[in-house]
Amino acid sequence: MILASTFLTAGLAATVLPVMPAHAQDEPLRIEITDGVIEPMSIAIPAFHGDEEVAAKVRQVVADDLTGTGLFSEIPAEAQVARPGSFAEPVSYEDWRAVDAQALVTAEVRQMGENISVRFRLFDVISGQPQGDGMQFDARAADWRRAAHKIADQVYARLTGERPYFDSRIAFVQETGPKSARIKRIGVMDYDGKNTLWMTNGASLVLAPKFSPDGTKILYTSYDSGFPQIRLLDVATVTSRALTQDAQAMSFSPSFGPKGQSIVYSREQGGNTDIWLMAPNTGAGRPLTDAPSIETSPSFSPDGQRIVFESDRSGSPQLYIMGVDGGEPVRISFGDGRYGSPVWSPKGDMIAFTKQVGDRFHIGIMRTDGSGEKMLTESFLDEGPTWAPNGRVVMFTRVTPGGNGQPRLHSVDITGRNMRPMNLDFAASDPSWGPLMQ
Q: What is the chain's mean pLDDT, rounded?
């Protein structure tokens, strides 16, 4: 666990940081994020003070987090003529302006046995004053990466005005072996691909993990009985239990409601597939749709009042929305092609989806009424989007063509820029982005 404590900027200035002249500032330094061209904010992140080895590692993760968004460009170390001699040293704003820095991050990292303490501050170089209060994070030394993500989250939130997403985890399916006999197991990793933990052993086929809203549990489809059924996995204990065990019906594609108190999933029986609602504590379920068409891939709205899903009731796979108690669905997709795997944004304003047009696949987004459709990607096979906790970034699976094609995880900004493959040394698919960690 990481403990955070704030220390007032004024108090620091009065005790260890002499008060420096501040320029008038009507608005805080802020990146304006639009669909137009964004000029990255230039940010200086000089070497962190304290214990050199761990301080350097923490600093690098902070820099990687921020520059990885495409919203920040780091001032090179060789251009930093005003590197402070200590964390308490006053900031020389004029020197940082001379190298075109707009923001400055300073920090100190101290290791005390099995624990570390990290202090950081963020400065608005343009106005010549601190950007919010400084903060201190105390953690186990083994959790130094989380401390770094926490710093980056604070910097990102203050400079963009948006919720952050670095201190979060992703559930996924690792894939090994030939396409005709893939071995699949569920793993959990930090958002940047580090600190992987394995949740299943690959003995049976597993698909489509989905994090619970609090990040403590994972739903997934398992074939350990030879028939697709839904299981619930506890991340801390790495134990699971079956939620469905009906040998006469296939249950798959589960997803949590916003409070984790309900689960929506697909159930196939007698050749007909419908959307069902389940209480995870009892396993009791009831149908929300009853149609001869195939209904699948359901996803709750953040307020828990609506569900978006895929259906071929119009003749081809399209996206529909219905109330949490069922009722007549409303179609929201009307473009060319086939739509599937819809996922509601954490903000509630957008829906991400997979779209096939001809022999090309796309990851797209649209408003919840179907307007504003935008394609973010195009490739041989892109599928299975999942949202970052702040609704700013979408992660998905991209499969390379050919008999030896491999699935890889990629992410893209909702503007369609900053496409990034995850740096993993194994093939992976079916990502599910969890919430910010506590």
A: 91
The whole-number average pLDDT for the span 91-96 is: 94
Residues 6 or more apart whose Cβ sits within 8 Å of residue 228: 207, 221, 222, 250, 251, 252
Q: Where are the beta strands (DSSP E) in 282-381?
A: 285-287, 295-300, 306-311, 318-323, 326-331, 338-344, 350-357, 360-367, 374-375
The dihedral of CA 377, 380, 384, 388: what is its sign?
negative
3-state secondary structure of 327: strand
Burial of residue 168 (CB within 10 Å: 0-12, 13-18, 19+) is buried
Beta strands 72-74; 41-44: pairing state: parallel
Q: Per-residue b/e over 72-108, b at no fewer than 16 CB within 10 Å?
A: bebbeeeebebebeebeeebbbeebeeeebbbbbbbb
The residue type at 331: R
> Rounded to an integer, what is the distance from CA 219 to the centroid of its chain?
17
- Cα 398 to Cα 87, 317, 339, 362, 419: the distances in Å are 44, 20, 16, 10, 12
Burial (0-12, 13-18, 19+ Cβ within 10 Å), 137: buried
Q: Quick one: residue 388, left, alpha or beta (phi over 0 = left, psi -120 to 50 = alpha)?
A: beta
Q: For 95-139, how does the pLDDT look when each residue is reduced to its tens digit (9 = 90+)? A: 999 999 999 999 999 999 999 999 999 999 999 999 988 999 999
Record the tokens describing residue 418, joined without a space. Answer: 């900053």
Provide the 8-state DSSP code for 46.
P
What average pLDDT does range 187-202 have in this prediction? 97
Which residues lie below 8 Å from residue 194, measured CB to CB, with a gap of 6+? 145
Angle formed at CA 349 by CA 164 and CA 324, multiple of 5 degrees:
115
User: 103-112 and 41-44: which strand pairing?
Assistant: parallel
Planar angle of CA 288, 293, 298, nearest 5 degrees: 45
More confident residue, 261 or 357: 357
d(CA 219, CA 104): 41
Residue 15: pLDDT band by 50, 70, 90 thresholds? very low
In the predicted structure, residue 272 carries a pLDDT above the cut 50: yes
Whole-structure pTM value:
0.92
- Tokens of residue 304, six digits: 């828990």
Going through 22-167 in order, the beta strands assigned E by DSSP cover: 41-44, 49-50, 72-74, 103-112, 115-124, 129-130, 134-140
**Which of 36, 17, 29 is CA-nearest to residue 413?**
36
Q: What is the pLDDT of residue 405?
A: 83
